[in-house]
TrEMBL record:
Protein source organism: Paenibacillus algorifonticola
Single GO MF descriptor: amino-acid racemase activity
Superkingdom of source: Bacteria
Transmembrane segments: none
Stated name of the protein: Asp/Glu/hydantoin racemase
Similarity-based family: Belongs to the HyuE racemase family.
Pfam families on file: Asp_Glu_race (PF01177)
Database matches in InterPro entries: Asp/Glu/hydantoin_racemase, Iso_Racemase_Enz_sf
Amino acid sequence: MTTVVAVYTGQGLAEPLKAVFQEVLPGVRLVNIIDDSLIGDVVKAGHIPAGVSKRLTQYFQHGEELGADIILNTCSSVGEVADAAKGQLGIPLVKIDEAMTAKAAAEYNAIAVLATLPSTLEPTMRFLAKQAEAIGKEVTILNGLAVGAFDALVGGNPAVHDRILLETALTVSDKADAIVLAQGSMARMEGAIREATGKPVLSSPRLAAEQIKEMLAERGLL
């Protein structure tokens, strides 16, 4: 059976991504590897510690051993570790924000990146800049760090998290052609942010699933 192994650094995205896969890739087996200590270690250190890189790379390799046809890295904070690990695998590794950032770079000139953690915001902004550079385009990338939103969420106040996210989106949207949601777990806010700002809003889970569907189809695995 065609299999995708998704590697998570936290708990929040597993169920939403499962729902997306059931809709976009209903005949594909989705296997989850979750280590929710990873994002905690990244947040605490303020960067990606060597131990996180090592464990994450091992999880990608375990995914291949589990029979994956494609590995999906679901965390934008560790996307650069995924880039380094690609050469160690015999199967494709997809970063969850690849399709989203490519679409944003191709279609918009001023892009606000909304995130609740600097550890996610900064790699996403760098990746977006690389995607634009790859197509020979100059884009303006705006910092949309929603300060306090992450603490509210882990503190059990999702309503406060959502309010801060919306307020931040409104602050940066005036100068932006579009808004990119740096964390896949923020996809549930896509509609609300689009309605509040009147701007196009891009989130990663569905776009990643569609990218994987295309890759599997090209290899005759669907």
